[in-house]
Amino acid sequence: MILTKQPFALVAAVAIGLMMPGVAFAQQEGTQAQRAENMQAATALHTRIDATQARIENARRTHKIARARATALNRQIAQTRQSMTRLGKQQGFVSAAELASYNRTLGTIESELDQRGVARSYGKDMLPAAPNGRH
């Protein structure tokens, strides 16, 4: 009976050993894809932060919000940016949960700006007009 169990154990050990490099490679590739996705999300958030700061400045210039309120909103954005930078340096990435939290913070600020009638920029404000009015 012992001899019949040993070949099975040997076959199982060899099979597991052969699968390990493939599993490790798949995990590494998954991690690289997740890092790339995380970097894209963080970059998009930085762009959103910049756009929101521009909206706050526009709102202040057009007197749609008071200077004190603009300062408070800019302080929230600065704290968000600093937190992202700190976490990125400490961990090498910003977690999805943190990105979601930062997006909620910006969403709250953007909602306030929307209620006050501050126009949104969609990133094409500085593009020249298309010839003959075509897009």
TrEMBL record:
Keywords: Coiled coil, Signal. Residues 49-76 form a coiled coil. Residues 1-26 form the signal peptide. This is Heavy-metal resistance protein. It comes from Sphingomonas faeni.
